[in-house]
Write a structure and sequence with these properties.
Number of helices: 25
Number of strands: 0
Largest sheet: none
Shape: globular
Oligomer: single chain
Order of helices and strands: HHHHHHHHHHHHHHHHHHHHHHHHH
Radius of gyration: 26 Å
Length: about 575
């Protein structure tokens, strides 16, 4: 019976991995982002419940585990917005971390099979979107999987492929004993690789290469001998040169990220030691970009500047938000986790290879924003620590086990209640949109009831400002000011300008439109609103100059909004343009 119960946590953990990349359930507001948190968190709590009877007897507090828990807590939790859904998911991840460390046995074959199923699921999803059997979740990209961006599909597929390929390298002697399973693994790898290539995600491919290279290097009999170091350096040089050559696949994208890093350096110089705090990059970057655009940006940089809240470089983001102190803690944690283990246990090597892929992609991406990626990372870290725990009997083992089970029960109970409390408004809001869409009407009045319960959700707050402002022009600016401090965008500032304009606060509205235009100079909408404002206040010459600039410049993306803006400008200034 004891051996049978040991399987339940591993089975549920495997299901957690599959659910974490499937986006189930989908019937929630902002489902492309939030459904992953709900589905994964529910499975995590079920895994923790099933694990209470499978804790090892010799549970004891160890300083490495406590320090890792503290570092992960600081990395995951946003203490400024304690009630956010992402924080609830992060608490569930920390509970999963603590639970996995305490398990007496993890069945890694089940975990490996689950990763294989998850990879095939994502690849199949990608093929169906590529052949247009099912729609994409983005109007701009063909391949997104269940996500809203192909980059997330690519990195998740890359990490799962890394697990399969590194598992093939590490466990080949065991896999070849079961030729049927070996054929399944190889077939799954061949099935998934084309989808990864079709995403054109350079960072995900580099992540996969480095992960495999790390695994191969550690498997060398003497990894630090001169001959193997030279081999490693040669392969690494080849990957670096290949990465440099890949610049020409998407040069504009690469140049845009260089601009972000350049502006971020200005932020670091203003707060070098302690940074701007958790979420400080998203809250402050566009203000710094606006200042840079006004002062020293080139014409090309003004075209490249976008509406971004991501650093696309994890060490850089951590330095901006937590200063040099945070960067040193992050680097120490990463180096400690990726150091070759003294005892080369194959499971430990596989998990370290997974984390190598995550860290590599973090140099070009945003791992802190992707909940499925965080889930895989936490599972990998916990599995390493679980393997490192020594099974030595201690006199107080029974007390420690009872205390651990009690804490897990209490945490699970609290998180279950909190998750249910958050599910209701998200699901009700989705239902509200669905009903009103069928009737071809909006839902502005209905969302007022969700304002207090979803006030920590940036996506909801932004939608609230857009919807309520249309129906209630006299609404207060409290929500707008909240977003200005936490997640400013040119669109938000245009909404603010419109509200101020309706209240006849002309100067304040002008400043809002100007700031929106400076944040993203290639965006025509804020300059168009500025032209309308000047025209209404009698500053016709200034309005005409802006209108002429808008109508004669090249447009980055020409859509219906741009068409309507140009048509309105031509109508207002018809006489002057004749």
């Amino acid at each position: 019976m004891k051996n049978a119960t040991d399987y339940f946590p591993s089975i549920l953990l495997g299901v957690t991995i599959i659910i974490s990349v499937s986006g189930i359930p989908s019937e929630v507001f902002g489902h492309a982002r939030t459904s992953f948190i709900f589905g994964t968190s529910i499975m995590i709590l079920l895994t923790c419940v099933s694990a209470w009877n499978t804790f090892r007897k010799n549970i004891k507090l160890s300083w490495p585990n406590i320090l890792y828990l503290c570092v992960l807590s600081l990395y995951l939790i946003d203490f400024k917005h304690p009630g956010s859904l992402f924080n609830t998911g992060s608490f569930c991840l920390l509970l999963l971390y603590a639970t996995l460390i305490c398990l007496r046995q993890i069945h890694y074959t089940i975990i490996f099979n689950s990763c294989l199923c998850a990879a095939v699921l994502l690849a199949g999803w990608g093929y169906l979107q590529y052949f247009k059997c099912i729609p994409s979740n983005s109007p701009f990209f063909l391949l997104t999987g269940p996500f809203h961006n192909p980059a997330i599909l690519a990195i998740m597929l890359s990490l799962l492929l890394g697990i399969m390929l590194n598992g093939l390298i590490l466990f080949y002697s065991s896999l070849k004993k079961s030729r049927f399973f070996l054929v399944i693994v190889i077939t799954a790898i061949i099935f998934c690789l084309p989808v990864l290539a079709l995403t054109y995600a350079r960072a995900a491919c580099i992540s996969l290469f480095i992960s495999i290279l790390y695994c191969l290097y550690i498997r060398f009999p003497h990894p630090f001998c001169t001959k193997n170091v030279i081999r490693f350096g040669g392969i690494l040089l080849f990957i670096v040169l290949s990465a440099g050559a890949s610049y020409f696949l998407k040069p504009k994208s690469a140049d845009g990220r260089l601009l972000i890093w350049k502006v971020s350096w200005r932020m670091i110089k203003d707060a070098p030691l302690t940074g701007f705090g958790k979420g400080g990059f998203a809250a402050n970057y566009l203000y710094y970009q606006a200042e840079y655009m006004k002062s020293s940006a080139s014409a090309e940089e003004r075209k490249l500047a976008g509406d971004t809240h991501l650093a696309f470089n994890e060490p850089l983001r951590i330095t901006v938000e937590h200063g040099a102190v945070g960067l040193l803690i992050y680097l120490a944690f990463i180096i400690r986790m990726l150091l070759p283990p003294k005892e080369s246990h194959l499971v430990t090597l596989a998990c370290k290879s997974l984390l190598t892929g995550v860290v590599t992609w973090g140099l070009f991406g945003y791992p802190d924003q992707i909940f499925p990626l965080l889930t895989l990372s936490i599972i990998g870290i916990a599995c390493i620590l679980n393997k490192n725990e020594k099974h030595v009997h201690t006199t107080n083992s029974v007390k420690n086990k009872v205390a651990a089970i009690t804490l897990c029960c209490f945490a699970t109970f609290l998180l279950s209640g909190r998750l249910w409390g958050q599910w209701q408004p998200y699901h009700n809001l989705y239902t509200c949109f669905k009903k009103n869409t069928k009737r071809n009407v909006g839902c502005p009045n209905s969302i007022l009831q969700f304002k207090d319960r979803l006030k920590d959700d940036i996506g909801f707050c932004y939608y609230y400002c857009q919807s309520v402002q249309k129906e209630h022009p006299d609404t207060d600016l409290h929500m707008i000011r909240f977003l200005e401090k936490n997640f400013p965008t040119p669109g938000l500032l245009m909404i603010k300008g419109d509200c101020l304009k309706k209240k006849n606060q002309w100067k304040e509205a002008e400043n809002a439109y100007k700031l929106a235009a400076d944040m993203m100079p290639s965006l025509q909408a804020p300059r168009g609103k500025l032209a309308f404002l000047y025209n209404e206040t009698g500053r016709r010459k200034e309005a005409l100059a802006i209108a002429h600039e808008i109508l004669t410049e090249d447009v980055k993306v020409y859509g219906f909004d741009t068409f309507r803006l140009h048509r309105e400008l031509k109508r207002i200034f018809e006489d002057e343009f004749k």
